[in-house]
């Protein structure tokens, strides 16, 4: 039996995204749109037909399928970095870590999908398309830009951001899934993701001095830290990639946990 999650609008917005806000704005514009149509303003061409979005309920199955999809985002990213030989030089130790972490993600994806199937759902065995399109592919494009002297560091930075994103996603799901057993599993898997992020943070900035939050004295940017904030924060994860501009700044990306339009609903397939 599928449990419907007690997933309020406030919780959805807290976890990430602005889908509900966009819907409200469109609804508020409804009367104005009607007024314009009544005045029959001339236009060129024809308006293409629209297809209504499929009705979808946010259930424990949907939330768990979404969590599983992030495991595959990480698997695919580690494979890309290893295949391209990006973990070299000062960041060579990340190569062995990436192999181990990929195995961990597969085990966790299998564990999550096992629960999905037990609830009557279908396992999801591929990456989250929206996370890949909005965050991972733009980061990869920046990392592989000609002239980027920090491609190895940037690849570790991307891995660190994805592990942090996975930890936050699991943490955010804990209070909204119905079953206490599933909450426990989310805590367990989220804890592993947080520990992997700590290891990658130490590869980026080794030593005790960078366990906690610090700021780069030259650029003013926040350094990657093993423990960036108190447990419980769900703010967007910021990371910078690619060649630096004339002022020494890289292109910054802000990654957020999946929102309504990034959830892996039961009609989504690989």
From the structure above, extract its key features.
mainly alpha; Ferritin; two-stranded antiparallel sheet; 270 residues
Describe the protein's architecture and organization:
- There is one protein chain.
- The chain has eight helices and two strands, in the order ααααααααββ.
- Mean pLDDT is 81; it is low at 4-40.
- It has a two-stranded antiparallel sheet.
- The chain is globular, with a radius of gyration of 21 Å.
- The longest helix is centred in the middle third of the chain and has 26 residues, at 93-118.
- It is mainly alpha-helical and 270 residues long.
- The protein has helices at residues 9-15, 19-28, 30-38, 60-83, 93-118, 129-143, 151-173, 180-204, and strands at residues 237-241, 251-255.
- The chain is 51% helix and 4% strand.
Summarize the structure.
This protein is mainly α.
Q: How does CATH name the architecture?
A: Up-down Bundle
| End-to-end gap | 23 Å
Number of domains: 1
Instruction: Give the fraction of residues assigned to helices.
Output: 40-55%
CATH fold node name: Ferritin
What is the overall silhouette?
A: globular
Order of helices and strands: HHHHHHHHEE
Q: Helix count, per DSSP?
A: 8
Topology, element by element:
Blueprint: H1 9-15, H2 19-28, H3 30-38, H4 60-83, H5 93-118, H6 129-143, H7 151-173, H8 180-204, E1 237-241, E2 251-255
Antiparallel strand pairs: 1-2
